[in-house]
Structures are given as C-alpha cells and as structure tokens.
Amino acid sequence: MLDTENGHAQAYRQNGFVAGLRVFSEQQVAELRQNIETLEAEQADGAGGHSLDQFFRVNGHVVIPLLADVARTPAILDAVEAVLGPNLLVWSVELFIKEPGSTKTVSWHQDITYWGMGETDDEVTAWIALSDVSELAGCMRFIPGSHAGGMAKHEDTFDNDNLLSRGQTIAGIDESKAVTGPLKPGEMSLHHGRCFHASGPNQSDDRRIGLAIRYVTPEVRDHAPGQDWALPVRGEAPAGGWSCIAGPRALFHPADLSLYDRILAGQATSLAAGAEQQVNLYTKGHSK
C-alpha cells in the first residue's frame, strides 16, 4: 500500500495509480452499501428491457440517482481534480461485485482499449471500495509505470469467469512486478487508463463490492472522432464532441431510460468494435 496522505497526484503521475485515499466514513460507506443492496433486492428485474446487472455495469448514473450522486462527492472530485484539473465530467459509473468464493476475475488490461478515446491522459478511474477489498477478496493489482507506454495488444477471450465485457487480456505480464492495492471500506484508488491492472477471485467470506467512476476532461473529444455523452460535475461545461446530460430525474424515469438506450447504441459502435462475438453488456436485454 502506498502512503497517499500527501502527494497522491505525484505518486499517480509516476506510477499510473495510487491507492488508499479515504473518501467516505465507515457510516457513509455502510449506508451506500445498504442502498445498493436494497436496489438489488427491490429492483432485481431491472427496467426498460435492461437487467439491473446491465445498469450496474454500464452507465448506471444515467438512470440511478444514487450512482450519479456518488460521482459528485466532493472528496472524490478533489482527489480527481488534483490529477486531471478543474473541469471534470463523468463518462461512466460501474459496479464490480464478486460474491464470496466467486471465481470471477479481471484479467490484465488497459481500460481505454475500446473506449474510442485514443491514448488520452485526460481520463482517470476512481475505484471506491464498498466492502473490505483485501488481497484475499481479490483486490486490484497494478504494474507501476505501465501507463507511460502506449496501448498494448489485447486479446478477446470472452471467458465466462472474466468480468470484462470481452474478457480482454494482455499476454506476457511479469507478475513479479505487480503491486497490490487493497482497500478498506470507504477508501479509493485512482488509476490511469493505460495502467496495466487486474484482480483475482474473491476467496473471502464477504461480498467484494467496488464502484468504478470514469472521469474525463472536456479535452478528450478534441482528439477523438464522433460524439459521446457525459455528466458535468465540476468546472466549465464542455462543447465540441460532448452531449451533456443532467443526471437522472428519478429511479428508472422513462425519459432517462430512453436516453440510456440512445447512449448505449451510440457507444456500442466503439466499445464492441472488432469483436468476433457479440459484446453482451452493450446489447439491450442483457442479463447475467
């Protein structure tokens, strides 16, 4: 674990990641977890032809107010602003949940491989632990400095035990160079979109719950083709290739579900580009 009380931006720029940033109190994170698990219990069928699992994994902030509200948390935004600057947008909010004893993993990969953003430095993932994300529970592992290179070759495996949309993986990683990033409930890590990272199975007796918020700056679309959607959360609103969204009106509001469908269809072109199989997370009607 890195000492991140001071200079987390410097550590991030040097290593491509930083872990152990406290953003929620024990009470706050317990309430967040309870709210998410209440959603699982009460909204298990999803809405608008989408499963709850799909909303949790793809753009949940468009239709679930709780996820949009978390992405606006000042402590998170302060830490992100230190590495990206004052103008911040939320591109996506995702939940990664591994049940106790789960064999689910996340293979070695770079986040921005299929995001249509090129090799930008103007993106960071804030990964917040809503449970004890220990090494036993399958915390993330990082390769320090790997963000300094370009995009590596990824192979799609479509492995059922892989939580990534295509089971994409980078071959030949030297595991001896990996650094673990365990997190206590309410702690956060930040990692660069080109930083090699992975996580193992959950061998603990509790759920392993992580919330990943993808923050970008307006400049991302200055160097990327096409149009994309984002939620402005700090600083100046963007122009150019961004369509700004305001956040959900209410849980699964019909207008927000319609917007969700448009965003899913628009993003699927780049997110599923080149895949030899259907990328189910970006298909309407997806379920576990």
Please characterize this protein's 3D structure.
The structure is a single chain. With 288 residues, the chain is α+β, with helices and mostly antiparallel strands. The chain has a single domain (8-275), classed as Jelly Rolls (Sandwich). Helices cover 23% and strands 21% of the residues. The protein has helices spanning 8-15, 26-42, 52-57, 65-71, 74-84, 254-271; strands spanning 17-22, 88-98, 106-109, 123-129, 140-142, 179-180, 187-192, 197-199, 208-216, 228-234, 242-244. The strands form two sheets. Strands 1-7-4-9-2-10-11 form a seven-stranded mixed beta sheet. Strands 3-8-5-6 form a four-stranded antiparallel beta sheet, with no helix packed on it. The chain starts with 7 loop residues before the first helix and ends in a 17-residue tail after the last helix. Residues 1-6 and 273-279 have low confidence and may be disordered.
Topology record:
Layout: H1 8-15, E1 17-22, H2 26-42, H3 52-57, H4 65-71, H5 74-84, E2 88-98, E3 106-109, E4 123-129, E5 140-142, E6 179-180, E7 187-192, E8 197-199, E9 208-216, E10 228-234, E11 242-244, H6 254-271
Parallel strand pairs: 10-11
Antiparallel strand pairs: 1-7, 2-9, 2-10, 3-8, 4-7, 4-9, 5-6, 5-8
Lateral strand order in the biggest sheet:
1-7-4-9-2-10-11
Residues in β-strands, percent: 15-25%
Number of domains: 1
CATH-scheme architecture: Sandwich
The beta-strand count equals 11
Return the structural class.
Answer: alpha+beta
Q: In the CATH hierarchy, what is the class? A: Mainly Beta
Helix proportion range: 10-25%
